[in-house]
Amino acid sequence: MPKIIDHDQRRDEIVDVTWQLIVEGGIEAATMREIASRAGFANGALKHYFTGKDQIITGAYERSLNSLGDRLTAYVAGKRGIEALEMFMRYTLPVEQEDATAARVLLSFWERCAFSVEVRGGYDAHLDTWKAGYLRYLAEGREDGDIRSSTPDDQLADEIIMMNIGATVIRVVSPDHLHVDVLERQVTDFVARLRRAD
């Protein structure tokens, strides 16, 4: 009787191996040969599960993203407006060790985005979703009367995203320059600015 192969499980295993290789040595460590070797495949066998390296790298990124998304959903459940916005901002900053690990994967993913239209398209979609969430919380905060800043919501959402991306890069490249109290103060000051009429 032929052995039944669970293709979804095999794909997950390949993504897990890729994620670990990126964490250990960056994108350069995640060669197709090393991914196949660590996952227990013959060198050419990966093509049965993925079209190429970009698709595998995207899978590793989505693994981190889905994990964060699940935790965030639970973290802000039942909250809205400025309260949800502040919690979301604090939770997505790369403070804990687990966040630092995910940040390394993200940085490798960004590198691939610079050279692959296919990979960049997936990230563009993620940014749109991320921004839409911030815009929803900002709109709720205005409805509730908690946000009084005249700065347009679109600009505020962009500021939040850029703050987070900048913190992610520093967390990977120069972690000694990223102090938790600085990040906390930035969020506190940003939220206070939202509450002030200008």
Per-chain topology:
Blueprint: H1 7-25, H2 32-39, H3 53-76, H4 81-92, H5 97-113, H6 117-143, H7 153-173, H8 180-195
Gap between N and C termini, in Å?
74 Å
DSSP strand (E) fraction?
under 5%
Q: What is the number of helical segments per DSSP (H or I, 4+ residues)?
A: 8
- Average the pLDDT over all residues and give the rounded result: 86
Series of H and E elements: HHHHHHHH
Low-confidence stretches: none
Q: Would you write up a description of this structure?
A:
The protein has helices spanning 7-25, 32-39, 53-76, 81-92, 97-113, 117-143, 153-173, 180-195. With 198 residues, the protein is mainly α. Residues 31-50 bind DNA.
Throw out a few tags for this protein:
mainly alpha; 198 residues; 8 helices; elongated
What can be said about this structure in brief?
The chain is built from eight helices and no strands. It has helices at 7-25, 32-39, 53-76, 81-92, 97-113, 117-143, 153-173, 180-195.
